[in-house]
Amino acid sequence: MHSIEEVLSKKLYGLHYYNRIILPFKAHFLKVIVSDNIITDFSTNSKGIFIREKEDFTDVYFLEYKDIKDTLSKYEAVKMVIVEKGKDIFDFKNHIKLSLYLEGKHKVNIEESDHDIIFLE
Amino acid sequence: MRKNQIILIALSFCIIFLLGENVFGGNNDIAIQDTVTTVTLSEETGEEHELPELFMVIPFVTLLLMIATGPIFYHHFWERHYPKVAIALGTITVIYYLAVLNDSHSLLHSLAEYLSFIALLGSLFVAAGGIFVRVNKRATPFVNVLFLLFGAVISNVIGTTGASMLLIRPYIKMNRNRIKPYHIIFFIFIVSNIGGALTPIGDPPLFLGFLRGVPFFWVFGNVWYIWLPTLLLLLFVFYVFDSFNKGNNNNEEEFTGKIEFKGMKNVGYLVIIILSVFIDPNVFSWVPSLAPLPFGIREIIMFSVMFFAYKGADQEILKANEFDFEPIKEVAYLFIGIFITMIPALQLIAHEANLLADKLTAGVFYWATGALSGFLDNAPTYLNFLSAAMGKYNLDINVKADVLEFVHHDIIYLRAISVAAVFFGAMTYIGNGPNFMVKSICERAGIKMPSFFSYMFKYSIPILIPIFIIVWAIFFR
Hints:
The structure holds 2 protein chains of 2 kinds. Chain A is mostly beta strands.
């Protein structure tokens, strides 16, 4: 299992299949943005997102979309604010802003949000 | 679903074009219809058409209600099907005009206005999307006031749409540690609407007035002393709001005070778009008219700029701006529905306004133009009320000399209509083209924007209406 820091430094990538994104880490989710859809409800009753943790990865299902790739332009990313599992969720310094760029061959490039991209916590 | 949407929109255009032959073939048989009791005079052709029945405003009202309620109460349905809804409601109006009124001219006229609208909005959106501006300055209430003031001034040079697209991202970035919905709402009030009241480039209704014969600098000379205090008052209210916002005090970020600007090529494209606004047969006689096509050289230039600006844009800038066609697509779909379904509403309003013109005071023109500009497109609303005001003096809006005479005759009416058409565009998300796009860009940045009704009841009514009452009491009562 990789830490988020490790994923970013080693440039490890995730995977995407239709409305499912597979991330190679575990995290507490605080906010996810797909296009102009701001998701903050991560409960099991959420109509927008379903998150399932496996031993070595995290499955994220975007329930409102058939294929998440159709929703985003090539310049757009799925954006998320997350906290590494085990770290203090209440410490803002631990809040990590990620941009997930969906590329060909089901690959998801995971980048820490560029300073240029407007992404508000 | 995308294919279906394209088919639907293509189908509506085909219906308009195919049956529009009536207009070009001079096959309108309105004169022999015995049932015609109320008629409206077509602006360009002088042909008379029967007025629509009152119930034909239902598609328009339905569309407005759905725009207002869709994102709140049936979000999933609305997100997937809003293009179909807009096109379907528009199609009802199209069929009614063709089958019942035998009036394809009104439809073609609206189509031409829509193409003009979307060409300007789309080209500015794409050109501005290839420009990157970063203001590395700590956002304070005073800095924000200066920024908004700058936006208001520049909106008279590059239009409210151009200024909104260019400045909304740097404005959000500058305020990223303290941003609240009111920041965006005031941006919409000031930069996307009220700021652009000084020149015909600023806002579409003023441009239509310019095309009809209102001198280019008339607006500046006659509106600046209303524009300035309104703007200062609004900026003062914003300053008070913003002073209470302490933001994220834990932020240790250092600011260099620098302003970074990338994408000069696209500034050139912006200049071309602004200049092309004047490429109109009504402005320069050497500009060829492409009639009966529902677009002109200007629209061709704008769509070409849109294409080249996108193809030649710096990929890094597009990525930094998270460029996506979705906001303009949303505006394009919703507004084709709005442009078509509002035809009956506008014709009925124009008819009533002309009937009552003698009794209408400047104050009535101000409130009526304003109230309707908040919900309808402010450009045709402006023209209809201008036509009614000119009717008081037996002057014709289609004759340039008459417009000039009217301008010098009694300026209070034109001033009231001009101010109201621009200012009240800020009342709702659909009052002016850029309002909706600013909302969409902000939501992509993670800002939870107020709903259609919240925007009105929490912000525009309590903040703008008192200011508009003051403007009315001082200048138009």
